[in-house]
Structure formats: structure tokens, C-alpha cells
């Protein structure tokens, strides 16, 4: 990336910051703006920015962002509270997520010519994680009951880390299916990635948490540096796992989970740090999505790919979610609301960039194309419907009176950025 490209992107960031307050009460979301901005400055439109797949900046940004997102998403989840009073997201994670992958796999085998079982399963797993930030008005709206907001928030915080080992496993099996000579190598490689990553994450997360807790308690560590120190622990977990043959991203996720549940009292600083730095990385990733990935759709999209993308955002997500929520006592509008707000965003983009692009899997271009189209449709559809659907659902809940939806639950920090926080403060 050249200096002119950096200049254009920097100007775009500043311009967005200048008008962000005016946009906070609208249906226009930051992912929409930055994906569109990336497309406009790309070679497909104005050609004022030099960003492409071969650019080292793209892969470095993707790696750092994925480590950051996995670590901070895990760190903000209180496992004791999750077990105590968050049965809805647990249902969606334990039942809905696997069923979504199964449904996506079957749809891929039926719709997409040439896809084998493991290629279809890989595509389904890449598209399984949700990103609450794409429908941030839902997560931040005080009109929506806390229990429902937290269900979307917690599900989004954990399903990317849970889906990642599955993505890696299916990628290894797809490679083994293709490369029959070295099939054993790919199976061993996948097993090493999935086993060693969590082990390193547990060790680094626990040691790092104890060291940070003691340093903060003794006054050795400045409060201003607690956030950067926690993210340094994430990078240590990533690098240590990669060094010994494990998966660094899984390691970062597990390290965040361990650290967040070991030193809960100090996590507020981490979240404050993540709110600004994480927002910047997220926005840049959506910009790269618009500049690098969206233009690839111009070469033509088969009708089967369009149908699969639409199914991924509707039936493939909504039917498994409805089945997972059956018997919880929530009413059908709640099931519909929770099932619809499973946006595909950051995790799917990063999984596609870092896993599919590095694997020698047949039809990987088709897998990437479907992922791009699904995320693009999700950015638009979930962004546009978040605020209106929140108002619609809030009105229904008010008429329900005393119901399961209104049951009080503990709140966990959300990853939705300053604009959403501003929106929450602006609503009466």
C-alpha cells in the first residue's frame, strides 16, 4: 500500500468521525459506510487506493484483528453468569450452532455443484458465526429487554471462537480429501492445531492473568497500560501456539476466556481500550472488505450462489435457532427476532481471508465468493432492519407483560462501538 492510499483512508476515517454523531440515530451503520467507502476507493470504481490480496497489509490487518476480536470477545464473557442465568445463548450455542452448520452443509451439497461433503461443511462453518455489531441498534437499544439483548451479545461473543476449531477441522479434512497422498499429514496437522492451541491458551491466559492481577494490586502497573498489557497477553498466546504447531487464534480465544474469568475486576480497562482500538481495526477490516473482496463479485455470481447466500441468512440460520429455543418459554416473536438477528460479519470475513486463502482446497474461490456475498447482504439487511425491528419487537414485549423475555439477567460488556453506545444514551 502506497502513501496516497494511506492518505485517502486516513481522510475517510476522520470524515466519518466528524459525522458519526449525526448518524447514530439512523439506519446507516459503520460497516455499511466503510464497506461502501472501500468499494468506492478501490480499483473497481475510483482507483485511488492500492489494496489487493497480495498486499501484506491486508493479511497483517486480518491476523491482528482476528486475534483482537477473539481475545476480547472471550474476555468479556462471565462464565459463572452464563451458567446461572443465560440459558438462551447457551441453547443457541450448544444446539443452534451445530444445527446451523449441518443445515448449511446439506444446502451446499444440494445447491452447489461439485462441492464435496467437507467443502460444503467448511463453507457452512465459515458462515456460522454471528456478529452483533452489524445490528448494533438491537444490542444497544434499552427498549429491547436486557435478556434478549444479552442473548444476541453473548452468542456473538462466543460462537466465533467455538466455530474456529470446526473451521480448521473441516479445512484439514477438505485438504486431506483433495491431497490423498498426504491425507495423514493434513489430519495430524488439524489435530495439532486444535489440541495445542487451547493448551497454550490456558497456560498463557492463567499465568498472564495472575501476573497482571499481582502487578495491578501492588501498584506496579499503571491503569492506563492494563489494556495494552492484556492485548500483549493475547499476542503472546497467539505466537506461542504458532511456534509449537498449535493454532494461535484458538489460543488467543482461550487465553481471553481464562483471563476474563480470572481477573474480572480489571477487565473494565480492557473493554475501554478495546472500544477505541477494536473499533478502528473493525472499521479498517470492513474497508478492506469493500476495497478488496466486494469487487470480486463483479465477475459474475451464479444463481445458486445467490440462493445459498439468501438461505444462509434466513432458513439455514432461523430454523436451527427456532429448534434450539423450543421449550424455553419465550414466545414466537422472540424466536423470530433472535433467529433473524444472526448477522454474518467480521468472523466470516477473517476466517475466509486467513483459512481458506491459505489452504489448497478445490473450489476455494467459490467458497470465498459465497462468503463475500453473504456478508455483503448481511451488512445491508441487518443494518437496515436493526432499528425498525427493535422498535417493533419492543412494542410487542410491552404488551406481553410479565413474561420470560423480561426475566432479569446479568449484563456483560458488548462489542458494538462508540456509535452504538451513543445511541443508547440518546434514547429516552
List the helices and strands and how they pair.
Layout: H1 3-23, H2 30-41, H3 56-75, H4 79-85, H5 87-111, H6 117-126, H7 136-140, H8 146-178, H9 183-217, H10 226-243, H11 248-262, H12 267-293, H13 303-313, H14 315-325, H15 332-340, H16 346-356, H17 364-400, H18 417-426
Question: In short, what is this structure?
Answer:
The protein has 428 residues and is an all-alpha fold. It has helices spanning 3-23, 30-41, 56-75, 79-85, 87-111, 117-126, 136-140, 146-178, 183-217, 226-243, 248-262, 267-293, 303-313, 315-325, 332-340, 346-356, 364-400, 417-426. The protein contains 18 helices and no strands.
Walk me through what this model shows.
The chain has a single domain (35-49, 57-130, 141-422), classed as Na+/H+ antiporter like fold. The relative contact order is 0.19. The model is unreliable at 417-428 (pLDDT under 50). Helix 5 crosses helix 6 (117-126), helix 6 (117-126) packs across helix 17 (364-400) and helix 16 (346-356) runs antiparallel to helix 17 (364-400). The protein is built from 18 helices and no strands. It has helices at 3-23, 30-41, 56-75, 79-85, 87-111, 117-126, 136-140, 146-178, 183-217, 226-243, 248-262, 267-293, 303-313, 315-325, 332-340, 346-356, 364-400, 417-426. The chain has 428 residues and is mainly α.
Just name the CATH architecture: Up-down Bundle
Counting structural domains, the number is 1
> What is the chains' assembly state?
single chain
Please report the total strand number as a whole number: 0
Looking at the structure, the CATH topology is: Na+/H+ antiporter like fold
Amino acid at each position: 500500500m502506497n502513501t496516497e492510499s494511506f492518505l485517502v483512508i486516513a481522510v475517510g476515517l476522520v470524515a466519518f468521525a466528524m459525522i458519526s454523531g449525526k448518524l447514530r440515530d439512523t439506519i446507516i451503520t459503520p460497516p455499511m459506510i466503510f464497506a461502501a467507502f472501500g468499494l468506492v476507493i478501490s480499483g473497481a470504481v475510483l482507483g485511488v487506493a492500492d489494496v489487493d490480496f497480495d498486499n501484506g497489509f491486508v493479511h497483517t490487518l486480518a491476523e491482528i484483528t482476528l486475534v483482537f476480536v477473539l481475545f476480547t470477545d472471550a474476555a468479556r464473557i462471565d462464565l459463572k453468569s452464563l451458567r446461572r442465568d443465560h440459558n438462551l445463548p447457551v441453547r443457541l450455542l450448544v444446539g443452534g450452532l451445530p444445527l446451523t452448520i449441518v443445515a448449511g452443509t446439506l444446502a451446499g451439497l444440494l445447491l452447489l455443484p461439485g462441492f464435496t461433503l467437507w467443502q460444503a461443511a467448511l463453507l457452512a462453518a465459515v458462515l456460522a458465526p454471528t456478529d452483533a455489531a452489524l445490528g448494533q441498534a438491537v444490542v444497544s437499544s434499552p427498549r429491547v429487554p436486557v435478556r434478549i439483548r444479552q442473548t444476541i451479545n453473548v452468542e456473538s461473543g462466543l460462537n466465533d471462537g467455538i466455530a474456529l476449531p470446526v473451521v480448521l477441522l473441516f479445512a484439514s479434512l477438505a485438504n486431506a480429501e483433495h491431497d490423498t497422498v498426504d491425507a495423514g499429514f493434513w489430519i495430524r496437522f488439524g489435530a495439532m492445531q486444535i489440541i495445542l492451541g487451547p493448551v497454550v491458551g490456558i497456560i498463557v491466559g492463567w499465568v498472564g492473568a495472575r501476573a497482571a492481577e499481582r502487578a495491578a494490586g501492588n501498584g506496579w502497573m499503571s491503569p492506563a497500560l492494563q489494556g495494552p498489557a492484556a492485548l500483549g497477553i493475547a499476542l503472546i498466546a497467539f505466537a506461542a501456539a504458532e511456534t509449537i504447531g498449535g493454532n494461535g487464534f484458538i489460543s488467543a480465544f482461550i487465553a481471553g476466556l481464562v483471563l476474563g474469568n480470572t481477573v474480572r475486576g480489571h477487565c473494565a480497562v480492557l473493554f475501554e481500550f478495546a472500544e477505541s482500538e477494536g473499533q478502528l481495526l473493525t472499521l479498517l477490516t470492513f474497508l478492506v472488505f469493500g476495497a478488496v473482496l466486494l469487487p470480486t463479485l463483479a465477475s459474475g455470481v451464479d444463481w445458486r450462489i445467490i440462493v445459498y447466500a439468501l438461505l444462509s441468512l434466513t432458513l439455514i440460520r432461523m430454523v436451527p435457532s427456532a429448534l434450539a429455543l423450543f421449550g424455553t418459554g419465550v414466545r414466537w416473536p422472540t424466536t423470530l427476532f433472535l433467529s433473524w438477528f444472526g448477522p454474518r460479519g467480521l468472523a466470516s470475513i477473517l476466517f475466509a481471508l486467513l483459512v481458506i486463502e491459505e489452504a489448497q482446497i478445490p473450489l476455494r474461490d467459490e467458497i470465498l465468493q459465497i462468503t463475500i456475498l453473504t456478508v455483503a447482504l448481511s451488512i445491508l439487511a441487518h443494518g437496515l432492519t436493526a432499528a425498525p425491528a427493535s422498535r417493533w419487537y419492543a412494542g410487542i414485549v410491552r404488551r406481553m407483560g410479565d413474561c420470560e423475555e423480561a426475566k432479569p439477567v446479568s449484563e456483560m460488556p458488548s462489542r458494538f462501538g462508540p456509535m452504538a453506545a451513543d445511541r443508547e444514551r440518546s434514547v429516552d
